[in-house]
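lol ok so funny story. i was supposed to be doing the assay writeup but got distracted and ended up predicting the structure for this chain instead. priorities right. anyway since i did it might as well share w the group, maybe its usefull for someone
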Amino acid sequence: MARRPIPVAILSIEGTNCDQELRVALAALGTRPEVVGLKQLEGRDVAARDRRNLDDYRMLFLPGGFSGGDYVRAGAIMAARIRAAIGPELVEFVRSGRMVGGICNGFQVAIELGLLPGRPGHALGPPEAALVANDSGRFECRPTFVAWEGGGFPPLRGLARGSRFLFPSAHAEGKLVLGGDAGTRRAELEASGQVLFRWVAPDGGPATYPWNPNGSEGDIAGLTDPEGTVFGLMPHPERSFFRDQAPDWTRSGSGTGFGDGRRFLEAVVRHAERSG
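and the output, tada:
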């Protein structure tokens, strides 16, 4: 019996601009992705036929871009609008075990919502971390490498710790700063398996600039909540999904096939299918 495609929402507002790349990648994995405007979920200023219900989806992605122009702070405006428009529905969505993924600007939104690093009961609240301006003081856009930390993220369990992925980066505000005693908090996140990825050099060794493109402490490139239901990462797996998106595809034989982005997103999608 054929597997029924799971419905996936890719949430957008003014300024998000990676939604279509993500939609194409998720469709290639056999899901039923839809780019959904926040107003469609809120039911405001849209025709009845265009309204959507968050509960009808099995996964939610917060895509990359410059939501709300990144005024105030990156991700802050979109987070405030989500909280006001669908805050209770989003909390129930996560409590039901359905996954929420934030990529680049979406990671910033998840941090601003308080979904990451996460609170008991998945409650929203003031941010307990921030993604601030890169140490270089400029927008960093280049191929970068991350390594799986072997933590508690269910889709990647069974993958060897240190497994490396090539995901391109494109951000100006990606340096993770933890609230309170940063050293203690980082140790807690590491102990609880919430560090999803770390920046690494091309050979898998420790990252220095530009392989850590923002100066994030501990080379942290992504986080999960304690249950692994919500995850966020700064680099873009959807931009290394197809082989011909790779920086060296014209110099290394065929441009057909897939890249590391497919490995990661397919693991996430298959987990969502099994757990739904």
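The domain at 7-275 is CATH 3.40.50.880 (Rossmann fold). The two ends are 17 Å apart (CA to CA).
back to the writeup now i swear
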